[in-house]
């Protein structure tokens, strides 16, 4: 009986991971084919290439910002890439398909109501899949912000490319040059508001992060709904701004609503990121009191600068093998710390015991191979 019970978390986790990979992979591949077809059908290859390149310009800086936020407990790069691809291909395609039955309604209703509803639903669905199937990789609010950001960046990239290509094609019909057509569209979509889609979806991400850390079943259901509703409302206000007061409403909403919300979102992200050090310190201190790792290691694990110094020390005295051992120890300790925090809060994942034992085994196996600055360097 004990062997069967112990095997269940591993089997369930494997089944959930396979389901997640299959759904995301199929949706992204089909979406990518359809998006490529739409882009190629929208204009000449040279125009499409130009639109894609221009739309890609803000992607790098935005992704860099989210990776910087994610440095404390980095999420798997494969999941971050999956989030970006979901936003770029699956979400855009699903949103368009969901909007097709609404083609008979007015343009204003489609822009202000239908687009926010469908787009925030399809973007937010990726976060719900993580909540259902990959909860072990979703520790809280900061993870929700990061995953939502990657989905939003991917969605904005493809949407901006489509708008840029359409702008050139429509300009040619009126005898305008591509520079005139691209100028305004590029400034508004790629320079003034590249953060819009990540910001909208962040509300869903924060809500899902709060739900994961909640002890209440009602809160775990209601919080994502509230976050999604806020995302839809803000998205609708943003879309509607361009149609109000002959377009002058855009500037008003941008200054009065979007800019303050954006600043508050940055403040929230920075506060949550800073709080991760306090959370990790408390969790690892409790684990050390239980004899699961040396308390003297904790200062080298909870501070980003100390982590870098430890890796540099390991490379100097242990070369590449020492560096790999230090990276393995740091990664296992940090992941174990956040897992232990969820246990202390009373919201551990279903496979907590199996994952915790795995982390402790990794720490015990690697610890004799490393040392931190000021400690005795192990002989090899």
TrEMBL record:
The keyword Protease applies. It comes from Nocardioides yefusunii. The keyword Membrane applies. InterPro entries: PrsW (IPR026898). It comes from the Bacteria. Keywords: Hydrolase, Membrane, Metalloprotease, Protease, Transmembrane, Transmembrane helix. GO terms for molecular function: metallopeptidase activity. Pfam families: PrsW-protease (PF13367). This is PrsW family intramembrane metalloprotease. The chain crosses the membrane at residues 20-41, 47-69, 81-100, 112-133, 145-166, 186-210, 217-238, 250-272.
């Amino acid at each position: 009986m004990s062997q069967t019970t112990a095997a269940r978390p591993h089997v369930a986790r494997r089944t959930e991971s396979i389901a997640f990979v299959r759904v995301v992979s199929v949706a992204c591949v089909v979406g990518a084919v359809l998006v490529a077809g739409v882009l190629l059908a929208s204009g000449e290859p040279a125009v499409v290439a130009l639109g894609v390149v221009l739309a890609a310009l803000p992607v790098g800086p935005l992704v860099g910002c989210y990776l910087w936020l994610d440095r404390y407990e980095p999420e798997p790069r494969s999941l971050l890439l999956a989030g970006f691809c979901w936003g770029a291909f699956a979400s855009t395609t699903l949103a368009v398909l969901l909007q097709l039955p609404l083609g008979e309604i007015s343009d204003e209703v489609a822009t202000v109501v239908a687009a926010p509803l469908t787009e925030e639903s399809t973007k937010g669905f990726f976060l719900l899949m993580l909540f259902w199937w990959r909860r072990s990789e979703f520790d809280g609010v900061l993870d929700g912000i990061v995953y939502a950001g990657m989905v939003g960046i991917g969605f904005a990239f493809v949407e901006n490319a489509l708008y840029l290509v359409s702008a050139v094609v429509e300009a040619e019909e009126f005898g305008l040059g591509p520079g005139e057509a691209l100028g305004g569209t590029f400034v508004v979509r790629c320079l003034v508001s590249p953060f819009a889609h990540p910001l909208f979806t962040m509300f869903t991400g924060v809500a899902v992060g709060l739900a994961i850390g909640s002890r209440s079943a009602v809160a775990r259901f209601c919080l994502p709904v509230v976050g999604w509703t806020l995302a839809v409302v803000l998205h609708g206000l943003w879309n509607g701004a361009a149609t109000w007061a002959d377009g002058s409403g855009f500037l008003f909403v941008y200054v009065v609503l979007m800019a303050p919300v954006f600043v508050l979102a940055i403040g929230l992200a920075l506060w949550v990121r800073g709080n991760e050090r306090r959370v990790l310190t408390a969790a690892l201190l409790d684990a050390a009191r239980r004899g699961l790792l040396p308390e003297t290691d904790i200062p080298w694990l909870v501070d980003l600068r100390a982590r870098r110094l430890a890796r540099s020390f390991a490379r100097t005295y242990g070369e590449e093998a020492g560096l790999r051992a230090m990276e393995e120890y740091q990664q296992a300790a940090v992941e174990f710390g956040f897992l232990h925090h969820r246990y202390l809060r009373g919201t551990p994942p279903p496979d907590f015991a199996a994952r915790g034992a795995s982390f402790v085994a990794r720490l015990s196996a690697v610890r004799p191979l490393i040392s931190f600055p000021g400690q005795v360097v192990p002989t090899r």
